[in-house]
Amino acid sequence: MIDVFSDITFVSPYFLSLLILIPLALLWKKRKGKDQKIHLQMPDLEPIKSIRSIRSTVFPYLNILKAVSFVLFVIALARPQLTLKEEEVKAEGIDIMMIMDISSSMLAQDFKPDRLEVSKKVAIQFVDKRPYDRIGLVVFSGESFTQCPLTTDHRVLKDFLDGLQCGLLEDGTAIGMGLASAVNRLKDSEAKSKVIILLTDGVNNSGYIKPMTAAEIAQELETKVYTIGVGSVGQALSPISRRSDGRYVFGMAKVEIDEGLLNQISEMTGGKYYRATNEQNLEAIYAEIDRLEKTEMDITTFKRYSEEYGRFLSIGLFIFLLEVVLRHSIFKTLP
User: Fold this and answer.
1) CATH of the domain at 227
2) pLDDT exceeds 50 at position 4
3) pLDDT digits (tens, 9 = 90+) for 62-116
4) Is residue 84 located within the same domain as residue 220?
5) In this structure, is residue 202 part of a structural domain?
6) Do 230 and 310 fall within a single domain?
7) Can you tell me the distance from the alpha carbon of 194 to that of 123, in angstroms, rounded to the nearest whole number?
8) What is the pLDDT of residues 136-169, one digit of tens each?
């Protein structure tokens, strides 16, 4: 990217080299005109030399319109950007991995419409409050995988969160696998502070990595783990089986969360365990974590850019179409 004016930059400046085609085309046309010059004896046109129509006056400028549209197309290809704003902020300097349980029990309807939808919505609200942090997402049920690596592109992260659904993985609750995946994503982080937020509604019952083993690794890497147990107290309308067509069958089931394990993981790593029995509880928990994890670092400068290629492309297209219409209508010439 190179500077052209104080506020304009080009992402792909090498396309500007195409502008050399304009003088080359003019040179070629001039040379071709000389080669095709024909000498004929004509009557004296001196008496009508001063008579000029609008058509004869405007016609030579059609080639200029074509050249201008070409220049605008080339500029659009080079992707001009305008620096809208340069701001200095105190960034938090925190890397955060969010771990979301997507086992079938997250469809329990003690939250409205269910635990998963509420958890997704509140997590997205939390992301919106951390504009300068790198945040990633790990999901788990009977196994785990990284849905989104650490990123500052929160729009992409929120799209991933919004698209989460149960049934993507083998069912179960592999808390250790989810935690291990998140720790692995943070092991090479150079952030001032590393945080994991683990949200689940069940008891560890699958996976080949024990939750406390993953917690010990997190402790070694100085990664703080906040754990959240999601679910009401007593019983809740939950999936109890699944039909052959993939639809879940719901029935009343006991809410079981291994609070002892989640509390142990948090205490070991310097975090905290929370229990969310409704949406308001969950919002308050994320708000508290947001307040706790504020670590200011050196001032960082951010530049925001506005893509301008669309403006050049649309004007160039208009001029090109105008030239085509004029040349084939009002200024049409015989072969």
Assistant:
1) 3.40.50.410
2) no
3) 778 888 888 888 888 888 887 655 555 555 578 999 999 999 999 999 999 999 9
4) no
5) yes
6) no
7) 17
8) 999 999 999 999 999 989 999 999 999 999 988 8
Which residues 6+ apart lie within 8 Å of 69 measured at CB? 316, 317, 319, 320, 323
> Tokens standing for 91?
């960034």
Chain segment 274-297, per-residue pLDDT in tens: 999 999 999 999 999 999 887 655
**Same structural domain, 181 and 311:** no
> Do the domain assignments include residue 222?
yes
Nearest to 100 by CA among 247, 203, 230: 230
Looking at the structure, tell me whether residues 218 and 102 fall in a common domain.
Answer: yes
**Which of 52-56, 111-115, 301-305 is most confident?**
111-115
**Is beta strand 80-90 parallel, antiparallel or unpaired with respect to 94-101?**
unpaired
Lowest mean pLDDT among 46-50, 77-81, 218-222, 300-304: 46-50
**CB 305, CB 83: distance < 8 Å:** yes
Q: Are residues 127 and 12 in the same domain?
A: no
What value, to the nearest 5°, has the Cα angle with vertex 132 and ends 283 and 116? 30
User: What DSSP line would sit under 30-61, residue for residue?
Assistant: HHHHHHT---------GGGTT---HHHHHGGG
**212 lies in the same domain as 308:** no
User: Is the pLDDT score of 220 beyond 60?
Assistant: yes
Give the C-alpha distances (Å, rounded to integers) separating 152 from 26, 93, 190. 48, 11, 15
Q: Are residues 219 and 96 in the same domain?
A: yes
Number of domains present in the structure of the chain? 2
DSSP codes of every residue in 192-258 = SEEEEEEEESS-----SS-HHHHHHHHHHTTEEEEEEEE--SSEEEEEEEE-TTSPEEEEEEE----
Structural domain of 229: 92-296
> What value does the mean pLDDT take over residues 10-29?
83
Q: Is residue 48, in this structure, part of any structural domain at all? A: no
Classify residue 43: in a domain, yes or no.
no
Q: Locate tokens 């919106």: which residue?
A: 128
DSSP state of 334: -
Do 113 and 72 belong together in one domain? no
